[in-house]
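User:
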Amino acid sequence: MEPFAIIPHQYDTEQLSAEVLAEVPRLLSRRRATRTANLGIFSGYRIGLDIGNGNIGWCVLFEEGSRLRLMTAEDIVAHNASQPPDARRTQLPDLRSFVPLGTHKFQARERGEKTEESLAKNRAKARTAARLLDARQRRRQFLRLALYAAGLYPAYGEPGLGNAAIPTDLLRVRLLEPGYAAAHPHDLGRALYNTLKRRGWMAPRGRAGEDGDSRFGRNATAAYRAALEQFGCETVGQFLHRCAEDYKADGRGLLRKRHKPLAWQKQNARQLVKREAWGAARSYDVLRSLTPTLDLIREEAALLRARQAPHVPISEADWARICEAAEFRRPLKAKTPGRCRWLPGEPRCIRALPSFQHFRVLEQVSNLRDPGGSSLNDRTFARAVEELQANESVSVARLASVLGTGALRLTEDDKVIRVLKGPATDLAMARAVGALWLDLPLAGRDCWTMRLLRRHPLPRDPNEDAPPWTDADERKLERDVAATFGPEALGRIADEAQKALEDGDKFAAISAAAARILADGYERRMDYDSRLALLRDAGAREPALDLYERLPYYGALMPDLTVPARGFAPREHTCDDEWQFGRAANPDVHVVLNRLRHVVNAIIDMMGGILPTRCVVEVARSALSAEQADEQRRTNNERERLRKLIEEDISS
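Assistant: Predicted structure:
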Protein backbone atom coordinates (compact mmCIF):
# COMPACT_ATOMS: atom_id res chain seq x y z
CA MET A 1 0.00 0.00 0.00
CA GLU A 2 1.42 3.36 -1.05
CA PRO A 3 0.73 6.67 0.76
CA PHE A 4 -1.23 9.32 -1.10
CA ALA A 5 0.89 12.10 0.43
CA ILE A 6 4.27 12.33 2.17
CA ILE A 7 5.17 15.27 4.39
CA PRO A 8 8.91 15.60 5.09
CA HIS A 9 9.08 15.99 8.83
CA GLN A 10 11.17 15.20 11.90
CA TYR A 11 8.42 13.15 13.47
CA ASP A 12 10.47 12.04 16.45
CA THR A 13 10.76 15.55 17.88
CA GLU A 14 8.53 16.61 20.74
CA GLN A 15 5.98 18.57 18.73
CA LEU A 16 4.87 18.75 15.15
CA SER A 17 6.16 21.83 13.42
CA ALA A 18 3.76 24.60 12.51
CA GLU A 19 4.57 24.15 8.82
CA VAL A 20 3.40 20.54 8.85
CA LEU A 21 0.21 21.37 10.74
CA ALA A 22 -0.51 24.04 8.18
CA GLU A 23 -0.13 21.56 5.32
CA VAL A 24 -2.28 18.80 6.79
CA PRO A 25 -5.75 20.32 6.09
CA ARG A 26 -4.85 20.86 2.46
CA LEU A 27 -3.55 17.35 2.00
CA LEU A 28 -6.45 15.83 3.94
CA SER A 29 -9.21 17.20 1.76
CA ARG A 30 -10.60 13.67 1.89
CA ARG A 31 -11.79 14.45 5.41
CA ARG A 32 -15.06 16.00 4.25
CA ALA A 33 -16.05 14.51 0.93
CA THR A 34 -15.26 11.85 -1.66
CA ARG A 35 -16.97 10.76 -4.87
CA THR A 36 -19.40 8.57 -2.94
CA ALA A 37 -19.84 10.43 0.35
CA ASN A 38 -20.22 13.91 1.80
CA LEU A 39 -20.36 14.99 5.45
CA GLY A 40 -22.51 18.01 4.65
CA ILE A 41 -22.25 20.71 7.28
CA PHE A 42 -20.11 18.55 9.54
CA SER A 43 -16.40 19.42 9.59
CA GLY A 44 -15.34 15.79 10.03
CA TYR A 45 -15.80 12.75 12.20
CA ARG A 46 -13.85 10.96 14.90
CA ILE A 47 -13.41 7.29 15.66
CA GLY A 48 -13.38 6.12 19.26
CA LEU A 49 -11.79 2.74 19.98
CA ASP A 50 -11.76 0.65 23.15
CA ILE A 51 -9.30 -2.24 22.81
CA GLY A 52 -9.84 -5.16 25.12
CA ASN A 53 -8.94 -8.82 25.32
CA GLY A 54 -10.81 -10.45 22.45
CA ASN A 55 -12.86 -7.43 21.43
CA ILE A 56 -12.61 -3.90 20.03
CA GLY A 57 -15.40 -1.47 20.77
CA TRP A 58 -15.82 1.41 18.36
CA CYS A 59 -18.01 4.44 17.72
CA VAL A 60 -18.29 7.23 15.14
CA LEU A 61 -18.83 10.83 16.32
CA PHE A 62 -19.60 13.67 13.90
CA GLU A 63 -17.85 17.00 14.46
CA GLU A 64 -20.05 20.09 14.41
CA GLY A 65 -17.62 22.81 15.36
CA SER A 66 -16.45 22.00 18.86
CA ARG A 67 -19.46 19.79 19.44
CA LEU A 68 -19.43 16.03 18.94
CA ARG A 69 -22.62 14.23 17.91
CA LEU A 70 -23.47 10.53 17.92
CA MET A 71 -25.95 10.02 15.11
CA THR A 72 -27.78 6.94 13.87
CA ALA A 73 -28.98 6.49 10.30
CA GLU A 74 -32.42 7.82 11.32
CA ASP A 75 -30.78 10.87 12.91
CA ILE A 76 -28.90 11.59 9.69
CA VAL A 77 -32.14 11.39 7.66
CA ALA A 78 -33.89 13.71 10.09
CA HIS A 79 -30.90 16.05 10.08
CA ASN A 80 -30.88 16.27 6.28
CA ALA A 81 -34.62 16.95 6.23
CA SER A 82 -34.22 19.85 8.65
CA GLN A 83 -31.62 21.65 6.52
CA PRO A 84 -32.48 24.51 4.13
CA PRO A 85 -32.87 23.51 0.47
CA ASP A 86 -29.52 25.01 -0.53
CA ALA A 87 -27.55 23.43 2.37
CA ARG A 88 -25.27 20.46 1.83
CA ARG A 89 -26.65 17.11 2.89
CA THR A 90 -24.82 14.36 4.70
CA GLN A 91 -24.49 11.50 2.24
CA LEU A 92 -23.02 8.05 2.82
CA PRO A 93 -22.66 5.18 0.30
CA ASP A 94 -25.31 3.03 2.02
CA LEU A 95 -27.15 4.72 4.84
CA ARG A 96 -29.00 1.49 5.65
CA SER A 97 -25.71 -0.21 6.63
CA PHE A 98 -24.43 2.73 8.68
CA VAL A 99 -23.80 1.65 12.28
CA PRO A 100 -22.49 4.43 14.57
CA LEU A 101 -21.15 2.10 17.28
CA GLY A 102 -20.50 -1.56 17.84
CA THR A 103 -18.11 -4.25 18.99
CA HIS A 104 -15.79 -6.36 16.89
CA LYS A 105 -15.07 -9.67 18.58
CA PHE A 106 -12.28 -12.04 17.75
CA GLN A 107 -10.65 -15.07 19.30
CA ALA A 108 -8.28 -13.92 22.02
CA ARG A 109 -5.12 -15.85 22.67
CA GLU A 110 -5.73 -15.55 26.41
CA ARG A 111 -9.06 -16.18 28.08
CA GLY A 112 -10.34 -15.87 31.58
CA GLU A 113 -11.03 -13.06 33.98
CA LYS A 114 -8.73 -10.08 34.21
CA THR A 115 -6.13 -10.16 36.94
CA GLU A 116 -3.42 -7.83 38.13
CA GLU A 117 -0.81 -10.02 36.43
CA SER A 118 0.09 -9.20 32.84
CA LEU A 119 -0.85 -11.76 30.22
CA ALA A 120 2.74 -11.59 28.98
CA LYS A 121 3.84 -13.11 32.29
CA ASN A 122 1.23 -15.85 31.98
CA ARG A 123 2.46 -16.68 28.49
CA ALA A 124 6.05 -16.75 29.73
CA LYS A 125 5.07 -19.18 32.50
CA ALA A 126 3.28 -21.43 30.01
CA ARG A 127 6.27 -21.44 27.66
CA THR A 128 8.60 -22.22 30.54
CA ALA A 129 6.42 -25.13 31.65
CA ALA A 130 6.25 -26.51 28.09
CA ARG A 131 10.01 -26.26 27.63
CA LEU A 132 10.65 -27.84 31.04
CA LEU A 133 8.38 -30.77 30.18
CA ASP A 134 10.04 -31.20 26.79
CA ALA A 135 13.53 -31.12 28.30
CA ARG A 136 12.55 -33.61 31.00
CA GLN A 137 11.07 -36.07 28.53
CA ARG A 138 14.03 -35.85 26.18
CA ARG A 139 16.53 -36.19 29.06
CA ARG A 140 14.85 -39.33 30.34
CA GLN A 141 14.72 -40.77 26.85
CA PHE A 142 18.44 -40.14 26.34
CA LEU A 143 19.18 -41.61 29.79
CA ARG A 144 17.30 -44.83 29.00
CA LEU A 145 19.12 -45.14 25.69
CA ALA A 146 22.51 -44.63 27.38
CA LEU A 147 21.70 -47.26 30.01
CA TYR A 148 20.47 -49.65 27.32
CA ALA A 149 23.69 -49.15 25.31
CA ALA A 150 25.67 -50.06 28.44
CA GLY A 151 23.60 -53.24 28.94
CA LEU A 152 21.97 -51.87 32.10
CA TYR A 153 18.41 -51.39 30.87
CA PRO A 154 15.96 -53.49 28.84
CA ALA A 155 14.94 -52.49 25.36
CA TYR A 156 11.75 -50.49 24.93
CA GLY A 157 8.73 -52.71 25.61
CA GLU A 158 10.73 -55.61 27.06
CA PRO A 159 10.50 -56.65 30.73
CA GLY A 160 13.47 -56.01 33.00
CA LEU A 161 15.44 -58.90 34.45
CA GLY A 162 16.78 -59.38 37.97
CA ASN A 163 14.88 -58.33 41.11
CA ALA A 164 11.92 -56.90 39.23
CA ALA A 165 9.63 -57.45 42.24
CA ILE A 166 11.59 -55.00 44.40
CA PRO A 167 10.39 -51.38 44.03
CA THR A 168 12.97 -49.26 42.28
CA ASP A 169 13.29 -46.67 45.07
CA LEU A 170 13.93 -49.48 47.57
CA LEU A 171 16.42 -51.16 45.21
CA ARG A 172 18.23 -47.83 45.00
CA VAL A 173 18.85 -48.05 48.75
CA ARG A 174 19.67 -51.76 48.99
CA LEU A 175 22.34 -51.65 46.29
CA LEU A 176 24.32 -49.32 48.58
CA GLU A 177 24.30 -51.82 51.45
CA PRO A 178 27.59 -53.71 51.99
CA GLY A 179 27.47 -57.22 50.56
CA TYR A 180 24.27 -56.70 48.55
CA ALA A 181 24.85 -57.70 44.93
CA ALA A 182 22.69 -56.93 41.94
CA ALA A 183 21.04 -60.09 40.60
CA HIS A 184 21.29 -58.72 37.06
CA PRO A 185 22.78 -55.57 35.44
CA HIS A 186 19.20 -54.37 34.97
CA ASP A 187 18.95 -53.94 38.76
CA LEU A 188 21.76 -51.37 38.73
CA GLY A 189 20.32 -49.75 35.63
CA ARG A 190 16.91 -49.34 37.31
CA ALA A 191 18.56 -47.82 40.39
CA LEU A 192 20.65 -45.43 38.29
CA TYR A 193 17.61 -44.39 36.26
CA ASN A 194 15.59 -43.76 39.40
CA THR A 195 18.47 -41.65 40.80
CA LEU A 196 19.28 -39.63 37.68
CA LYS A 197 15.83 -39.03 36.21
CA ARG A 198 15.32 -36.31 38.84
CA ARG A 199 18.74 -34.76 38.80
CA GLY A 200 18.07 -31.93 41.25
CA TRP A 201 18.86 -28.27 40.93
CA MET A 202 21.46 -27.36 38.29
CA ALA A 203 23.56 -24.22 38.10
CA PRO A 204 22.20 -21.69 35.58
CA ARG A 205 23.84 -21.69 32.19
CA GLY A 206 24.48 -18.76 29.88
CA ARG A 207 26.29 -18.38 26.60
CA ALA A 208 29.61 -18.50 28.43
CA GLY A 209 28.71 -21.85 29.99
CA GLU A 210 27.52 -22.97 33.40
CA ASP A 211 27.72 -20.67 36.39
CA GLY A 212 29.40 -23.00 38.86
CA ASP A 213 29.73 -20.35 41.56
CA SER A 214 26.07 -20.08 42.53
CA ARG A 215 25.37 -19.05 46.11
CA PHE A 216 21.99 -20.77 46.09
CA GLY A 217 23.57 -24.01 44.88
CA ARG A 218 26.23 -23.91 47.58
CA ASN A 219 23.71 -23.19 50.32
CA ALA A 220 21.26 -25.87 49.13
CA THR A 221 24.02 -28.49 48.93
CA ALA A 222 25.36 -27.59 52.37
CA ALA A 223 21.89 -27.73 53.92
CA TYR A 224 21.18 -31.14 52.41
CA ARG A 225 24.53 -32.50 53.58
CA ALA A 226 23.72 -31.29 57.09
CA ALA A 227 20.37 -33.10 56.95
CA LEU A 228 22.05 -36.31 55.76
CA GLU A 229 24.47 -36.13 58.67
CA GLN A 230 21.67 -35.31 61.11
CA PHE A 231 19.69 -38.45 60.19
CA GLY A 232 22.61 -40.79 59.47
CA CYS A 233 22.22 -41.13 55.72
CA GLU A 234 24.77 -41.19 52.91
CA THR A 235 22.66 -40.28 49.89
CA VAL A 236 19.47 -38.54 48.84
CA GLY A 237 17.83 -41.90 48.12
CA GLN A 238 18.57 -43.17 51.62
CA PHE A 239 17.21 -39.98 53.18
CA LEU A 240 13.97 -40.25 51.18
CA HIS A 241 13.63 -43.87 52.33
CA ARG A 242 14.21 -42.79 55.94
CA CYS A 243 11.51 -40.12 55.62
CA ALA A 244 9.02 -42.68 54.26
CA GLU A 245 9.80 -45.12 57.08
CA ASP A 246 9.42 -42.44 59.76
CA TYR A 247 6.17 -41.24 58.21
CA LYS A 248 4.76 -44.77 58.23
CA ALA A 249 6.00 -45.46 61.77
CA ASP A 250 4.18 -42.37 63.03
CA GLY A 251 0.94 -43.80 61.66
CA ARG A 252 0.55 -41.21 58.94
CA GLY A 253 0.36 -43.63 56.01
CA LEU A 254 2.47 -43.56 52.84
CA LEU A 255 4.77 -40.64 52.04
CA ARG A 256 5.24 -39.50 48.48
CA LYS A 257 9.00 -39.33 48.02
CA ARG A 258 9.15 -35.94 46.38
CA HIS A 259 10.90 -32.72 47.29
CA LYS A 260 8.81 -29.58 47.50
CA PRO A 261 9.29 -27.12 44.60
CA LEU A 262 11.07 -23.85 45.29
CA ALA A 263 7.87 -21.92 44.61
CA TRP A 264 6.06 -23.91 47.31
CA GLN A 265 8.91 -23.37 49.78
CA LYS A 266 8.77 -19.64 49.14
CA GLN A 267 5.01 -19.43 49.62
CA ASN A 268 5.05 -21.58 52.76
CA ALA A 269 8.27 -20.32 54.32
CA ARG A 270 6.65 -19.98 57.76
CA GLN A 271 5.74 -23.67 57.81
CA LEU A 272 9.30 -24.87 57.18
CA VAL A 273 11.44 -26.18 60.01
CA LYS A 274 14.39 -23.92 60.73
CA ARG A 275 17.82 -25.50 60.59
CA GLU A 276 18.52 -24.86 64.26
CA ALA A 277 15.37 -26.88 65.15
CA TRP A 278 16.26 -29.99 63.13
CA GLY A 279 17.41 -31.88 66.23
CA ALA A 280 13.84 -32.15 67.54
CA ALA A 281 12.14 -32.46 64.14
CA ARG A 282 11.09 -35.53 62.21
CA SER A 283 12.90 -36.33 58.97
CA TYR A 284 9.82 -35.84 56.77
CA ASP A 285 9.32 -32.35 58.22
CA VAL A 286 12.91 -31.42 57.38
CA LEU A 287 12.44 -32.84 53.86
CA ARG A 288 10.02 -30.06 52.95
CA SER A 289 12.72 -27.40 53.33
CA LEU A 290 15.43 -29.21 51.31
CA THR A 291 16.37 -28.89 47.64
CA PRO A 292 18.64 -31.57 46.11
CA THR A 293 21.34 -30.41 43.71
CA LEU A 294 23.07 -32.10 40.82
CA ASP A 295 26.24 -32.51 42.89
CA LEU A 296 24.38 -34.70 45.40
CA ILE A 297 22.75 -36.76 42.67
CA ARG A 298 26.10 -37.25 40.93
CA GLU A 299 27.65 -38.45 44.18
CA GLU A 300 24.86 -40.96 44.75
CA ALA A 301 25.13 -42.33 41.19
CA ALA A 302 28.91 -42.62 41.51
CA LEU A 303 28.50 -44.40 44.85
CA LEU A 304 26.07 -46.89 43.30
CA ARG A 305 28.56 -47.59 40.53
CA ALA A 306 31.45 -48.02 43.00
CA ARG A 307 29.53 -50.33 45.39
CA GLN A 308 28.37 -52.58 42.54
CA ALA A 309 31.59 -52.46 40.52
CA PRO A 310 32.63 -56.03 41.55
CA HIS A 311 29.29 -57.38 40.29
CA VAL A 312 28.30 -55.02 37.43
CA PRO A 313 31.33 -53.17 36.03
CA ILE A 314 30.66 -50.08 33.88
CA SER A 315 33.30 -48.87 31.45
CA GLU A 316 34.45 -45.25 31.50
CA ALA A 317 33.03 -44.64 28.02
CA ASP A 318 29.60 -45.97 29.01
CA TRP A 319 29.66 -43.99 32.27
CA ALA A 320 30.55 -40.79 30.41
CA ARG A 321 27.54 -41.31 28.09
CA ILE A 322 25.24 -41.94 31.05
CA CYS A 323 26.41 -38.77 32.81
CA GLU A 324 26.08 -36.74 29.62
CA ALA A 325 22.52 -37.97 29.10
CA ALA A 326 21.61 -37.21 32.73
CA GLU A 327 22.89 -33.64 32.39
CA PHE A 328 21.11 -32.95 29.08
CA ARG A 329 19.72 -29.45 28.61
CA ARG A 330 17.85 -27.89 25.76
CA PRO A 331 20.24 -25.85 23.61
CA LEU A 332 20.08 -22.10 24.08
CA LYS A 333 18.20 -20.44 21.25
CA ALA A 334 19.50 -17.05 20.22
CA LYS A 335 16.95 -14.28 19.89
CA THR A 336 16.52 -12.94 16.40
CA PRO A 337 16.96 -9.16 16.25
CA GLY A 338 14.58 -6.83 14.49
CA ARG A 339 15.50 -4.10 12.06
CA CYS A 340 17.28 -0.84 12.81
CA ARG A 341 14.99 2.17 13.16
CA TRP A 342 17.25 4.25 10.89
CA LEU A 343 18.74 1.66 8.53
CA PRO A 344 16.04 -1.00 8.00
CA GLY A 345 18.47 -3.17 6.07
CA GLU A 346 20.67 -3.57 9.16
CA PRO A 347 19.91 -5.75 12.21
CA ARG A 348 19.76 -4.17 15.64
CA CYS A 349 23.00 -4.41 17.57
CA ILE A 350 23.83 -5.79 20.99
CA ARG A 351 23.91 -3.20 23.78
CA ALA A 352 27.20 -4.60 25.07
CA LEU A 353 29.06 -3.50 21.93
CA PRO A 354 31.62 -0.77 22.72
CA SER A 355 30.51 1.16 19.62
CA PHE A 356 26.92 1.31 20.89
CA GLN A 357 27.99 2.26 24.40
CA HIS A 358 30.24 4.99 22.98
CA PHE A 359 27.26 6.34 21.02
CA ARG A 360 25.08 6.17 24.14
CA VAL A 361 27.60 8.18 26.17
CA LEU A 362 27.73 10.91 23.53
CA GLU A 363 23.97 10.95 23.09
CA GLN A 364 23.30 11.31 26.82
CA VAL A 365 25.78 14.16 27.23
CA SER A 366 24.48 15.91 24.09
CA ASN A 367 20.92 15.79 25.45
CA LEU A 368 21.83 17.30 28.83
CA ARG A 369 20.33 20.73 29.40
CA ASP A 370 21.27 23.44 31.86
CA PRO A 371 18.68 25.41 33.87
CA GLY A 372 18.22 27.76 30.93
CA GLY A 373 17.42 24.89 28.56
CA SER A 374 20.69 25.21 26.62
CA SER A 375 23.03 22.37 25.71
CA LEU A 376 26.56 22.17 27.09
CA ASN A 377 29.33 24.19 25.44
CA ASP A 378 32.22 22.40 23.74
CA ARG A 379 34.55 22.54 26.73
CA THR A 380 31.95 21.32 29.22
CA PHE A 381 30.78 18.68 26.74
CA ALA A 382 34.30 17.23 26.48
CA ARG A 383 34.71 17.18 30.28
CA ALA A 384 31.33 15.47 30.72
CA VAL A 385 32.19 12.80 28.14
CA GLU A 386 35.54 12.19 29.81
CA GLU A 387 33.89 11.84 33.23
CA LEU A 388 31.22 9.45 31.96
CA GLN A 389 33.69 7.30 30.03
CA ALA A 390 35.65 6.71 33.24
CA ASN A 391 32.64 5.31 35.15
CA GLU A 392 30.05 2.64 34.56
CA SER A 393 27.36 5.05 35.75
CA VAL A 394 27.20 8.64 36.97
CA SER A 395 24.22 10.44 38.44
CA VAL A 396 23.15 13.64 36.74
CA ALA A 397 23.49 15.51 40.05
CA ARG A 398 27.07 14.30 40.57
CA LEU A 399 28.02 15.16 36.99
CA ALA A 400 26.63 18.66 37.44
CA SER A 401 28.69 19.03 40.62
CA VAL A 402 31.87 17.90 38.86
CA LEU A 403 31.29 20.22 35.92
CA GLY A 404 30.22 23.15 38.09
CA THR A 405 27.34 24.01 35.77
CA GLY A 406 24.52 24.07 38.27
CA ALA A 407 21.54 21.75 37.95
CA LEU A 408 21.40 19.66 34.79
CA ARG A 409 18.41 17.86 33.34
CA LEU A 410 17.99 14.91 30.96
CA THR A 411 14.64 13.63 29.69
CA GLU A 412 13.85 10.70 27.40
CA ASP A 413 10.30 9.96 26.27
CA ASP A 414 8.95 12.46 28.80
CA LYS A 415 10.76 10.66 31.65
CA VAL A 416 13.42 12.32 33.76
CA ILE A 417 16.70 10.40 33.66
CA ARG A 418 18.73 10.67 36.86
CA VAL A 419 21.60 8.26 36.12
CA LEU A 420 23.80 8.22 33.03
CA LYS A 421 25.29 4.96 31.77
CA GLY A 422 28.96 4.66 30.88
CA PRO A 423 30.96 2.19 28.73
CA ALA A 424 30.55 -0.84 31.00
CA THR A 425 32.10 -3.28 28.52
CA ASP A 426 35.31 -1.31 27.98
CA LEU A 427 35.77 -0.69 31.70
CA ALA A 428 35.17 -4.34 32.64
CA MET A 429 37.45 -5.67 29.89
CA ALA A 430 40.17 -3.18 30.82
CA ARG A 431 40.08 -4.53 34.38
CA ALA A 432 40.34 -8.08 33.04
CA VAL A 433 43.05 -7.78 30.36
CA GLY A 434 44.48 -4.29 30.87
CA ALA A 435 45.46 -1.77 28.22
CA LEU A 436 45.56 -4.44 25.51
CA TRP A 437 41.81 -4.11 25.20
CA LEU A 438 41.73 -0.31 24.90
CA ASP A 439 44.54 -0.40 22.32
CA LEU A 440 42.24 -2.26 19.92
CA PRO A 441 40.20 -0.24 17.42
CA LEU A 442 36.50 0.15 18.12
CA ALA A 443 35.49 -2.32 15.38
CA GLY A 444 37.93 -4.87 16.80
CA ARG A 445 36.48 -4.50 20.29
CA ASP A 446 33.00 -5.01 18.82
CA CYS A 447 34.13 -8.25 17.16
CA TRP A 448 35.72 -9.54 20.38
CA THR A 449 32.59 -8.63 22.36
CA MET A 450 30.39 -10.71 20.07
CA ARG A 451 32.74 -13.68 20.41
CA LEU A 452 32.94 -13.36 24.20
CA LEU A 453 29.14 -13.40 24.24
CA ARG A 454 29.36 -16.62 22.21
CA ARG A 455 27.63 -15.01 19.26
CA HIS A 456 28.39 -15.06 15.57
CA PRO A 457 27.90 -11.89 13.47
CA LEU A 458 24.22 -11.13 13.05
CA PRO A 459 22.91 -11.89 9.53
CA ARG A 460 21.68 -9.02 7.40
CA ASP A 461 18.85 -11.15 6.01
CA PRO A 462 16.03 -11.12 8.60
CA ASN A 463 14.93 -14.59 7.50
CA GLU A 464 18.30 -16.16 8.31
CA ASP A 465 19.54 -17.43 11.66
CA ALA A 466 23.03 -16.83 12.95
CA PRO A 467 24.88 -20.16 13.17
CA PRO A 468 24.90 -21.71 16.66
CA TRP A 469 27.98 -21.53 18.85
CA THR A 470 29.78 -24.88 18.74
CA ASP A 471 32.55 -26.60 20.69
CA ALA A 472 34.91 -25.86 17.80
CA ASP A 473 34.07 -22.14 18.13
CA GLU A 474 34.77 -22.34 21.87
CA ARG A 475 38.16 -24.00 21.35
CA LYS A 476 39.13 -21.42 18.74
CA LEU A 477 38.05 -18.62 21.09
CA GLU A 478 40.25 -20.03 23.86
CA ARG A 479 43.27 -20.16 21.52
CA ASP A 480 42.69 -16.66 20.15
CA VAL A 481 42.16 -15.10 23.58
CA ALA A 482 45.32 -16.73 24.89
CA ALA A 483 47.31 -15.53 21.86
CA THR A 484 45.97 -11.95 22.05
CA PHE A 485 45.54 -11.25 25.76
CA GLY A 486 47.61 -13.91 27.53
CA PRO A 487 47.28 -17.57 28.59
CA GLU A 488 44.98 -16.96 31.59
CA ALA A 489 42.98 -14.12 30.04
CA LEU A 490 39.75 -16.08 29.42
CA GLY A 491 39.51 -16.97 33.10
CA ARG A 492 40.07 -13.36 34.12
CA ILE A 493 37.42 -12.23 31.64
CA ALA A 494 34.95 -14.72 33.14
CA ASP A 495 35.69 -13.37 36.63
CA GLU A 496 35.90 -9.64 35.90
CA ALA A 497 33.89 -8.90 32.76
CA GLN A 498 31.38 -11.65 32.04
CA LYS A 499 28.61 -10.10 34.13
CA ALA A 500 28.98 -6.74 32.37
CA LEU A 501 28.93 -8.50 29.01
CA GLU A 502 25.84 -10.55 29.81
CA ASP A 503 24.01 -7.53 31.27
CA GLY A 504 24.41 -5.87 27.87
CA ASP A 505 23.42 -8.97 25.89
CA LYS A 506 20.19 -7.34 24.76
CA PHE A 507 19.22 -5.73 21.49
CA ALA A 508 19.19 -1.98 21.05
CA ALA A 509 16.80 -0.11 18.75
CA ILE A 510 19.52 0.77 16.24
CA SER A 511 22.24 -1.07 14.37
CA ALA A 512 25.98 -0.88 14.96
CA ALA A 513 26.36 1.04 11.69
CA ALA A 514 23.82 3.66 12.77
CA ALA A 515 25.47 3.90 16.21
CA ARG A 516 28.85 4.69 14.62
CA ILE A 517 27.34 7.29 12.28
CA LEU A 518 25.43 9.04 15.06
CA ALA A 519 28.43 8.93 17.41
CA ASP A 520 30.46 10.71 14.75
CA GLY A 521 27.77 13.37 14.49
CA TYR A 522 27.64 13.87 18.24
CA GLU A 523 31.42 14.13 18.48
CA ARG A 524 31.39 16.85 15.84
CA ARG A 525 28.58 18.65 17.75
CA MET A 526 26.23 18.48 14.77
CA ASP A 527 22.60 19.45 15.12
CA TYR A 528 19.73 17.07 14.40
CA ASP A 529 19.43 17.93 10.71
CA SER A 530 23.15 17.41 10.12
CA ARG A 531 23.11 14.04 11.86
CA LEU A 532 20.07 13.11 9.81
CA ALA A 533 21.99 14.02 6.66
CA LEU A 534 24.76 11.61 7.68
CA LEU A 535 22.20 8.84 8.06
CA ARG A 536 20.64 9.67 4.68
CA ASP A 537 24.06 9.41 3.06
CA ALA A 538 24.31 5.92 4.56
CA GLY A 539 20.96 4.89 3.10
CA ALA A 540 18.47 5.97 5.74
CA ARG A 541 15.05 7.16 4.68
CA GLU A 542 14.29 10.73 5.60
CA PRO A 543 11.69 10.93 8.41
CA ALA A 544 8.32 11.79 7.03
CA LEU A 545 4.63 11.68 7.79
CA ASP A 546 3.05 9.16 5.41
CA LEU A 547 -0.66 9.72 4.79
CA TYR A 548 -2.68 6.67 3.72
CA GLU A 549 -6.24 6.19 2.57
CA ARG A 550 -6.40 3.01 4.66
CA LEU A 551 -4.34 1.71 7.55
CA PRO A 552 -1.43 -0.37 6.18
CA TYR A 553 0.17 -3.36 7.88
CA TYR A 554 1.82 -2.08 11.05
CA GLY A 555 5.17 -3.72 10.29
CA ALA A 556 5.61 -1.53 7.20
CA LEU A 557 5.48 1.60 9.39
CA MET A 558 7.32 0.35 12.48
CA PRO A 559 10.25 -1.81 11.32
CA ASP A 560 12.18 -1.19 14.54
CA LEU A 561 9.38 -2.77 16.60
CA THR A 562 9.16 -6.03 14.68
CA VAL A 563 11.12 -9.27 14.53
CA PRO A 564 11.34 -11.78 11.65
CA ALA A 565 8.17 -13.83 11.27
CA ARG A 566 9.85 -17.12 10.41
CA GLY A 567 10.09 -18.15 14.06
CA PHE A 568 6.31 -18.05 14.57
CA ALA A 569 4.84 -20.20 11.78
CA PRO A 570 5.88 -21.97 8.55
CA ARG A 571 6.08 -19.92 5.38
CA GLU A 572 2.87 -21.40 3.97
CA HIS A 573 0.98 -20.19 7.08
CA THR A 574 2.47 -16.68 7.03
CA CYS A 575 1.01 -13.86 4.97
CA ASP A 576 3.23 -11.88 2.59
CA ASP A 577 3.17 -8.72 4.76
CA GLU A 578 4.38 -10.61 7.83
CA TRP A 579 7.09 -12.41 5.88
CA GLN A 580 8.32 -9.17 4.30
CA PHE A 581 8.09 -6.75 7.21
CA GLY A 582 8.15 -9.03 10.25
CA ARG A 583 5.74 -8.98 13.16
CA ALA A 584 5.53 -7.98 16.79
CA ALA A 585 7.21 -10.37 19.19
CA ASN A 586 4.18 -10.23 21.50
CA PRO A 587 1.47 -12.38 19.86
CA ASP A 588 -1.37 -10.48 21.54
CA VAL A 589 -0.05 -7.18 20.20
CA HIS A 590 0.18 -8.72 16.72
CA VAL A 591 -3.42 -9.95 16.82
CA VAL A 592 -4.79 -6.70 18.27
CA LEU A 593 -3.01 -4.46 15.76
CA ASN A 594 -4.26 -6.53 12.83
CA ARG A 595 -7.81 -6.56 14.19
CA LEU A 596 -7.56 -2.82 14.81
CA ARG A 597 -6.55 -2.28 11.19
CA HIS A 598 -9.54 -4.35 10.10
CA VAL A 599 -11.96 -2.29 12.21
CA VAL A 600 -10.63 1.14 11.23
CA ASN A 601 -10.52 0.30 7.53
CA ALA A 602 -14.09 -1.07 7.69
CA ILE A 603 -15.28 2.19 9.30
CA ILE A 604 -13.54 4.25 6.59
CA ASP A 605 -15.22 2.10 3.92
CA MET A 606 -18.57 2.59 5.66
CA MET A 607 -17.95 6.37 5.57
CA GLY A 608 -17.32 6.28 1.84
CA GLY A 609 -13.55 6.70 2.07
CA ILE A 610 -13.71 9.91 4.10
CA LEU A 611 -10.80 9.89 6.52
CA PRO A 612 -11.35 10.59 10.23
CA THR A 613 -9.91 13.72 11.78
CA ARG A 614 -8.86 11.84 14.89
CA CYS A 615 -8.82 8.36 16.43
CA VAL A 616 -9.09 8.15 20.22
CA VAL A 617 -7.92 4.81 21.60
CA GLU A 618 -8.38 3.33 25.05
CA VAL A 619 -6.11 0.32 25.61
CA ALA A 620 -6.90 -2.42 28.10
CA ARG A 621 -4.16 -3.76 30.36
CA SER A 622 -4.21 -7.10 28.52
CA ALA A 623 -2.98 -5.39 25.35
CA LEU A 624 -0.02 -3.77 27.10
CA SER A 625 3.39 -5.12 27.93
CA ALA A 626 4.19 -5.99 31.55
CA GLU A 627 6.07 -2.70 32.10
CA GLN A 628 3.32 -0.64 30.45
CA ALA A 629 0.63 -2.41 32.46
CA ASP A 630 2.48 -1.69 35.72
CA GLU A 631 2.90 1.97 34.78
CA GLN A 632 -0.78 2.25 33.82
CA ARG A 633 -1.85 0.64 37.10
CA ARG A 634 0.22 3.15 39.08
CA THR A 635 -1.35 5.99 37.10
CA ASN A 636 -4.86 4.65 37.73
CA ASN A 637 -4.17 4.27 41.45
CA GLU A 638 -2.95 7.85 41.63
CA ARG A 639 -6.05 9.09 39.79
CA GLU A 640 -8.28 7.12 42.15
CA ARG A 641 -6.50 8.64 45.15
CA LEU A 642 -7.00 12.15 43.76
CA ARG A 643 -10.66 11.42 43.02
CA LYS A 644 -11.27 10.37 46.63
CA LEU A 645 -9.53 13.50 47.92
CA ILE A 646 -11.74 15.64 45.71
CA GLU A 647 -14.85 13.84 46.98
CA GLU A 648 -13.78 14.40 50.58
CA ASP A 649 -13.11 18.08 49.89
CA ILE A 650 -16.54 18.54 48.26
CA SER A 651 -18.36 16.69 51.03
CA SER A 652 -16.66 18.78 53.71
